[in-house]
Amino acid sequence: MFPAGPPIYSLLRLPLLQLLLLVVQAVGRGLGRASPAGGPLEDVVIERYHIPRACPREVQMGDFVRYHYNGTFEDGKKFDSSYDRNTLVAIVVGVGRLITGMDRGLMGMCVNERRRLIVPPHLGYGSIGLAGLIPPDATLYFDVVLLDVWNKEDTVQVSILLRPPHCPRMIQDGDFVRYHYNGTLLDGTSFDTSYSRGGTYDTYVGSGWLIKGMDQGLLGMCPGERRKIIIPPFLAYGEKGYGTVIPPQASLVFHVLLIDVHNPKDTVQLETLELPLGCVRRAVAGDFMRYHYNGSLMDGEGPFDSLPGPPALYCSYSRNHTYNTYIGQGYIIPGMDQGLQGACVGERRRITIPPHLAYGENGTGDKIPGSAVLIFNVHVIDFHNPADVVEIKTLSRPSETCNETTKLGDFVRYHYNCSLLDGTQLFTSHDYGAPQEATLGANKVIEGLDMGLQGMCVGERRQLIVPPHLAHGENGARGVPGSAVLQFEVELVSREDGLPTGYLFVWHEDPPANLFEDMDLNKDGEVPPEEFSTFIKAQVSEGKGRLMPGQDPEKTIGDMFQNQDRNQDGKITVEELKLKSDEDEERVHEEL
Ligand SMILES: [Ca+2]
Ligand SMILES: [Ca+2]
Q1: Which of 69, 166, 50, 68 lies closest to 110 in space, CA to CA?
Q2: Which end of the chain, C or N, has fewer beta carbons within 10 A?
């Protein structure tokens, strides 16, 4: 208002008065000097009866001020009061816009200071007075309280009250911010606060949504930082003020706490916190991942959500608490879908997601406000792809050449250690004191082992990585979390050729020509179980044939006997034996 027209809120707004001021102001002398007792005052008398403890700034010539006052005569009679008119004085000081007594009396004053001024007539309205208001030669008494001081040369004043140790980013022009604030006038009168609204104040910076001083004062601020920002009125609401709460020409003081900052152009930010050695495979879209996470907001509030494992040593039973999902397929927020790609098993990474790649302007639930940046600390436990096969790595081979390797149907004995990809031990054959036994392809072990144990030499050691669809699937098993990738170390102890499907015994050469006679040891025309068993064991020990491996021989021989004893009378006759071998012949022909 001062550059742009007459002061509206001045006591001394009559043109006549201003003329008078010019006439009388040359008479004054030094500040605050009183005349000898009893005589007329030579200068303004100043009594600073209340000085605030903090006085960051004193009124200087040319400053703009806002103040309240009461004006009385010597007899105590009031001739004017800003309180009565409910209008502050807002005016430039020390340049003759006020009576000289007031110009001088305000010098050096602090905001919230209270002064009594005694203004002699020659520094007030002189020998003429002011028609109807001030008689000639009147000494004026003013009680003044200063509310505001600023200058046209002022800039925004920023004081950093608290800066967090970690500053992920600082506010730049064009950013979108969420902050809390308390707004006061320079004298401490509160005019607005975000804390009463139950939410942050959310806005763009540097786009004219804010008063200019705020656009400037927020720049460079970190999430979690607290600032005091003092804004002169020409960078705030200026001559008009704002509603009933911000008077014209008011300096504003904001105490700001920055909660959040992002830019609409932001993408997901990744920070690797821990990368395991020897990471060869990185997750891609379409992989299925199991991970733990902590989610927090930018100012450190949180976690708003987490699926953490126990701190150091993971117990396998707690593994079910990982978050399990496909990545890059839209099952999770876009920022997470992106941020998990490229991760290694065992990696810990921090993923910072702007709201447009998270929960947007509306947020979700009562923990994630609208327009919130989310920070996730993620620990990748494992991942796999539904198209994965068993990954086989040979760790060592026996030095002698290996002519025969394992194939489907073979009976194998092997030692194994099974663990999760994070190293959690699950099972080991060493707990049982004997190797594990299995017929390959007989559905006795998980599919991944059936595959991973093929093509192996006795004495060879392998590492196998088995995806869950070739192990225990989505539901897991006792001690194995659902969808877990398993890691095996296997060592082949022995290998025996299997028998053709359906066979319990095979001849290495042609069977004896007189088979029944050979079996019927006491030549009574029938073969009971004892004779049958003795005969078969003799063939095996003489190397003429062999039984199915991996089974109790007594049980296998018992089964063979049952097959031959067609009428189930506990003995085999020559007819029964012939009938059975004819059938077997026919079956072989059909298969061929
Ligand atoms: Ca017999
Ligand atoms: Ca029989």
Answers
A1: 50
A2: C
Q: CA-CA distance, 226 to 22, in Å (whole number)?
A: 48
CB of 213 closer than 8 Å to CB of 251: no
> Read out DSSP for 167-217?
-S----TT-EEEEEEEEEETTS-EEEESGGGTS-EEEESSSSSS-HHHHHH
CATH code of the domain containing 544:
1.10.238.10
How far is ligand 2, taken at its centre, from the CA of residue 578, in Å? Answer: 12
Catalytic residues, which ones?
69, 79-80, 99, 125, 142
Ligand closest to Cα of 520 equals: 1
Task: Read off the tokens for 48.
Answer: 């600073």
Cα–ligand 2 centroid distance for 348 (angstroms) = 71
Measure 590 CA to ligand 2 centroid, in angstroms. 27
The ligand that comes nearest to the alpha carbon of residue 525 is: 1
Mean per-residue pLDDT pooled into runs of 10, the chain (592 residues): 28 35 35 49 92 94 95 94 85 92 96 97 92 92 97 96 91 96 96 91 93 96 96 95 92 97 96 92 96 86 57 35 91 95 96 95 88 93 96 92 89 95 90 89 90 95 97 91 94 90 84 89 93 93 88 90 91 85 62 48
The closest ligand to the CA of 570 turns out to be 2
- Look up the CATH number of the domain holding residue 85: 3.10.50.40
Residue 2 counted as domain residue: no
| Ligand 1 center from residue 519 Cα (angstroms) | 7
Domain range holding 487? 391-496
Q: How far is the CA of 525 from the centre of ligand 1 (A)?
A: 6
Q: Residue 23: count other Cβ atoms within 10 Å of its Cβ.
A: 13
Question: Structural domain tally of the chain?
Answer: 5
4 domain residue, yes or no: no
Cα–chain-centroid distance for residue 55?
Answer: 43
473 and 566 inside one domain: no
1 is a domain residue: no
Question: 279 and 311 share a domain?
Answer: yes
pLDDT at residue 307 in the model: 56
- Do 339 and 286 sit in the same domain of this protein? yes
Q: Which of 479, 496, 513 is the last residue of a domain?
A: 496
Dihedral class, residue 409 (left if φ above 0, else alpha if ψ from -120 to 50, else beta): left
Distance 551 CA to ligand 2 centre (A): 25
Q: Is 230 exposed, middle or buried (0-12, 13-18, 19+ CB in 10 A)?
A: buried
Q: Does one domain contain both 511 and 491?
A: no
Same domain, 204 and 324: no
Distance 525 CA to ligand 2 centre (A): 11
Query: Does 10 fall in a domain?
Result: no
Give the whole-angstrom CA distance, residue 126 versus residue 25.
10
Ligand nearest to the CA of 517: 1
Helix, strand, coil % in the chain, rounded to nearest 5: 20, 30, 50
